[in-house]
Amino acid sequence: MSDESGLSIDKLREYLENEGIHTSYHRLKILEYLRNHRTHPTVERIHKELSREIPTLSKTTVYNTLKLFVREGIVSELTIEEKEVRYDADTKPHAHFKCIECGGVYDIALESPLFEHEMIEGHKIAECHIYLKGVCNDCSKMPKNKRS
Ligand SMILES: [Zn+2]
Ligand SMILES: [Zn+2]
Question: What is the pTM of this model?
């Protein structure tokens, strides 16, 4: 194992196979990237980073693979901004905080009864997203003129 938070490629392959998802090198690399980068990257970011290592990887492949992972429930899609869909390999219930200064999206370990509901007023709940916005810890420590 390369680092404590990431799973080896073999473990990821096993995981995908257990989920009934056909594995390919691209799929494994995309899942590995998401597991190792908990910054909620966009399609563009994932493609940019991975294409250094895999020049043949197209943005469409990254996009389609992420859509497949979302459908299979192993990755969540965050639409905290309308034009900026982000992806998260952590599918356990948690909230997200977006910093309006640096644009970073952070995981928030928020306990909420909203996450517990399976049914509300006869509507069956499939997803629950809690989005918070503001100025992050790092940015609020920085004087305003030093912020990028
Ligand atoms: Zn910030
Ligand atoms: Zn998250």
Answer: 0.84
